[in-house]
Amino acid sequence: MSSILDVLLEQSNATIDALLEDGADPSEYYLIEHHLASRDFTKLEKAAVEMVKEGYHVDDADEFEDEQGERWFAFAASTESTLDRDVLARQIREILVVAEECDVEYDGWGTFLDEDEDDYEDE
């Protein structure tokens, strides 16, 4: 887990840096979406239940195909948070434990800046 965790924490810090460079207010609360996926819907469903138990809002799963034509299922586990590195690192650790216990992929987190949010809601 440590090498995966290290990569996720590095990505998180890079994302925070990019958001701050783009003018994000570090003290403002943002909708943080943590992305989980699996080829096995049952495993993903188990992860969704665990994420709800941890206090996250879970979206309905989406279905998509990867470049090799494999069918995947994915959902976002959402929470509101500031861009606090320690808080987001704690969330990453918490979600990675659930992902590994449920045998699903955790692909990190993302958010939208307020000015961009409306652009994505229409897509």
Describe the structure.
- By secondary structure, this protein is α+β, with helices and mostly antiparallel strands.
- The protein has one domain (2-121): Alpha-Beta Plaits.
- The protein is 48% helix and 26% strand.
- Helix 1 (2-21) runs antiparallel to helix 3 and helix 2 (41-53) packs across helix 3 (85-102).
- The longest helix has 20 residues, at 2-21.
- The N and C termini lie far apart (35 Å).
- The relative contact order is 0.25.
- It holds the Pfam family RraB.
- Residues 10-111 form the Regulator of ribonuclease activity B domain.
Arithmetic mean pLDDT: 92
Q: Superfamily at the CATH H level?
A: RraB-like
Main sheet? 5 strands, antiparallel
Number of strands: 5
State the low-pLDDT regions, or none: 116-123
Radius of gyration: 15 Å
Oligomer: single chain
Query: What's the order of the H and E elements?
Result: HEHEEEHEH
Counting DSSP H or I runs of 4 or more residues, the number of helices is: 4
CATH hierarchy, class? Alpha Beta
> How many domains comprise the coordinates?
1
The CATH topology annotation reads as Alpha-Beta Plaits
What is the percent of helical residues? 40-55%
CATH arch. level architecture: 2-Layer Sandwich
Protein name: Ribonuclease E inhibitor RraB
Pfam family, one: RraB
Keywords: Cytoplasm
